From TrEMBL:
Species in which this protein is naturally found: Nocardioides soli
Transmembrane segments: 62-81, 88-106, 112-134
The VanZ-like domain, residue ranges: 58-134
Protein name as annotated: VanZ-like domain-containing protein
Swiss-Prot/TrEMBL keywords: Membrane, Transmembrane, Transmembrane helix
Length: 142
C-alpha cells in the first residue's frame, strides 16, 4: 500500500526545501557559519559533561557533517518506500563526493575533505536506518 498523495507531496516538498537549504550551506563561499555551529556543539558537549578531550572541534564538525545529511535519506526513504538503506548510503556518498569536489575545485574559501565524505555518508546511512528500524518495529507490533 502506497502513501496517500498528500503525504507523499508533503514529504517531497520538505525534502526539496531541505535540499535547497543544504546546498546553500554546503556550497557557500566560506564555512564560517558551519564552524561556529560546530563550536556551539562542542561547547554544549562540555556543558553536559563531556571532557575537553572528547568534545573537540574536529569531532563536533564530524558529527555535524553526519547529522546534516540524515534528514535527506530519512525523508527520501519515506517518500520513496522502495528505496532502502543501501540505496541512500550510495546516493549520499555520491552527493558528498560531488560537494567536496566542488568545494575543492571551485570554492577557494572552502577545503575539500575525505572525512566530510565519510561523515556525510554515515549520516545518509543513519537517516535511512532510522526509517527502516521504525518500519520494522511497526510491522512486528502491528
Amino acid at each position: 500500500m502506497g502513501l496517500p498523495g498528500r503525504v507523499r507531496r508533503a514529504l517531497l516538498i520538505a525534502l526539496g526545501a531541505y535540499v535547497v537549504l543544504l546546498a546553500i550551506a554546503l556550497l557557500a563561499p566560506t564555512s564560517g557559519t558551519q564552524s561556529e555551529m560546530a563550536s556551539w556543539l562542542c561547547d554544549l558537549g562540555r556543558a553536559v559533561g563531556f571532557d575537553a578531550g572528547t568534545a573537540t572541534q574536529p569531532r563536533a564538525e564530524f558529527l555535524c557533517n553526519a547529522l546534516i545529511l540524515a534528514p535527506v535519506s530519512a525523508l527520501g526513504s519515506l517518500a520513496w518506500p522502495r528505496t532502502d538503506w543501501r540505496d541512500w548510503t550510495a546516493w549520499t556518498f555520491l552527493a558528498a563526493g560531488l560537494v567536496e569536489l566542488v568545494q575543492g575545485a571551485v570554492l577557494s574559501g572552502r577545503t575539500a575533505s575525505y572525512a566530510d565524505v565519510v561523515a556525510n555518508t554515515l549520516g545518509g546511512l543513519a537517516g535511512a536506518l532510522v526509517v527502516a528500524l521504525v518500519r520494522r518495529v511497526r510491522a512486528t507490533a502491528g
